[in-house]
Amino acid sequence: MKTTASATKSEMMLESARGLFAEVGYEAASMDLVAKTAGVSKATLYAHFDSKENLFAEILEVENGRPEDGDWLPERFEGDVEGVLRRFARGMARFFVDGRGLAVYRLFVADLHRFPELVARFHAAGPMAMRSRVARLLAQMGERGALAIDDPETAADHLLSLVQGRLPFDRSIGLPPPSEEEIDRRVESALQFFLRGYAPRNSRGER
Amino acid sequence: MKTTASATKSEMMLESARGLFAEVGYEAASMDLVAKTAGVSKATLYAHFDSKENLFAEILEVENGRPEDGDWLPERFEGDVEGVLRRFARGMARFFVDGRGLAVYRLFVADLHRFPELVARFHAAGPMAMRSRVARLLAQMGERGALAIDDPETAADHLLSLVQGRLPFDRSIGLPPPSEEEIDRRVESALQFFLRGYAPRNSRGER
DNA sequence: GTCTATATGAGGATAGAC
DNA sequence: GTCTATCCTCATATAGAC
């Protein structure tokens, strides 16, 4: 079964490259190392991917565009606002402390500027797609009067900025991950602040 | 005047390295290029700085630790809260769109993890020092009853996260700078949101 | 498709003359 | 202190056999 064997090696190479790029960045992930980790020769690696840049682009596209498989970002709002937003905020905070969000964040900031032709596309497929989904959720909460949302996109920016905070930055520079309790503490204070700022207006039009 | 000539060459080298590191990052800023840009030979460069890592550390320490010379972050609070915070927010947004803040942000995220022994010190001297100054300012506003600040450090995190938002990230990956109007629009919405969330409580202890 | 072996070039660092 | 010329390592990429 040639195809199966081929597919397996292909997947090994992709998987190795994915892990190495995310772990050590573009420069430090040499093709030698990728090949060695995947258990193939460099020539084989180059037979599948024309160049290192090419390999990088393919990996990043998959990582970046893959919809978040966690169950913390629902497609539509049901239930109580605070519970839904807390679930989302906790999931996203962890996504940026140890998960794929952190890996993509580092690769974007450290290396994406070298591939100007990829910037717009990846930005739209990654960060902007996430913002759109959050904005849609907040808009639904606004429509039901559970929050006072004038501009969903801006509100989404505010929520995302607050929940991420310094987490991806601190992690990227090499600081150790905060404890679970510390993450939840930060998430909770950001969440309560967000809910205060976007609380529905009362009958006199005040907050 | 040997010393003057020496000092001049020294400064040329430092200035070139500073600009190149900030512009293209650690890897892409080769010692060949630094020397060429400074108008000296590589041997001269190495006579002044033992290694590239050494040069990087010296540059980053100066850039990072230099107190912000802009006049948008006052040492102590006087005047009206909204005006002071608006001035601060606008200054900081621009600092992270085109200024030294952006350069330091990129160097930190992209390259600092390679120098584990520098992380803690630079983090304390840079981002944490900024946070402390903002926290002090917010604490003073809280003491005068102009804002409801329970935890100044956390409030400072919230303000900094909101004002920076996606700006340094977007700029780092290679997106063009937003217009002046766009910056001010984002700053204003972040500011109004912050003021809502930290508005002083009324006589019944409500917001 | 996959391997071993190698071409080619870039970049960090140094030797030795002045 | 400063230069020119050079060493050496390592990384991308390829040639050629199987």
Q: How would you characterize this protein structure?
A:
Two copies of one chain form a homodimer. With about 210 residues, chain A is mostly helical. Chain A has helices at about 1-30, 30-40, 40-50, 50-65, 80-95, 100-110, 115-125, 125-145, 150-165, 165-175, 180-195. In chain A, helix 1 crosses helix 4 (about 50-65) and helix 5 (about 80-95) crosses helix 6. The interface of A and B includes residues 120, 164, 172 and 196 of A. Chain A binds a DNA duplex (18 and 18 nucleotides) through helix 1 and helix 3.
Largest contact between chains: A-B, 41 and 41 residues
Tell me the total number of β-strands of chain A. 0
* Rounded mean pLDDT score of chain A: 93
Q: Give helix and strand order of chain A, one letter per element, not per position.
A: HHHHHHHHHHH
Question: What form of chain A results from the Cα inertia axes?
Answer: elongated
SS content category of chain A: mainly alpha
Largest sheet of chain A: none
Radius of gyration of chain A: 20 Å
State the oligomer. homodimer
Please indicate the percent range of residues of chain A in DSSP E strands (runs of 2 or more).
under 5%
> Number of helix segments of chain A?
11
Low-confidence stretches of chain A: none
Helix fraction of chain A, binned, reads: over 70%
Distance between the termini of chain A: 67 Å
